[in-house]
Amino acid sequence: MRKWPYIFLALLMGACDWFVPKETLRSQYVNRELQAMDWETVDQFPLFKNCDETASKQNQKQCFEQVLTQELGQLIEQLGRVDSLVISGSYTLSIIVDAQGQCLLSDKNNNRSETATEALFFAELSKAMQQLESISPALKQGIPVATQYLIPLEIHLD
């Protein structure tokens, strides 16, 4: 009979977790998961239609980079022919593939000041990039996410 108060007290102490609101427990779980997540990598890279989504992560990345480089090369060649622009130099393009699969030119970096011809060229390139074929966005735990890529370019349209 003397054991009953101790058993009751032990059960009462253990039941304290039962009174914690579910929202608090859920937010604690989400915070733990967010801290454990690697935010620097994605589970699946953005993919063009001709890239295999069942391929390994490294093959997906290579396919995306190859197709993007080919598309950029074609766009630059078309812009050079159509607008008869004379532009030459080394550039680093900052390309963002957003969560909807749109390819955007966010910024370009070069080592010298930009001329009016270069500004016109990159404005036209930015417009043309928005017309690229549809891209499946990158996935992180099954959720589409935006990703950014830095692409070095050597342009000689003389």
Main-sheet strand order equals 2-1-5
List low-pLDDT spans: none
Classification by helices and strands:
alpha+beta
Total domains, how many? 2
Query: N- to C-terminal separation?
Result: 99 Å
User: How would you sum up the global shape?
Assistant: elongated
- Whole-number mean pLDDT: 81
Q: How many β-strands, per DSSP?
A: 5
Rg from alpha-carbon coordinates: 26 Å
Number of helices: 4
Order of helices and strands: HHHEEHEEE
Could you estimate the helical fraction of the residues in percent? 40-55%
Main sheet overview: 3 strands, antiparallel
Strand residue percentage: 15-25%
List the helices and strands and how they pair.
Blueprint: H1 3-14, H2 22-36, H3 57-83, E1 87-97, E2 103-109, H4 116-129, E3 138-140, E4 143-145, E5 147-157
Antiparallel strand pairs: 1-2, 1-5, 3-4
Helix pairs in contact: 3-4
Keywords:
3-stranded antiparallel beta sheet, alpha+beta, 5 strands, 2 domains, 158 residues, single chain
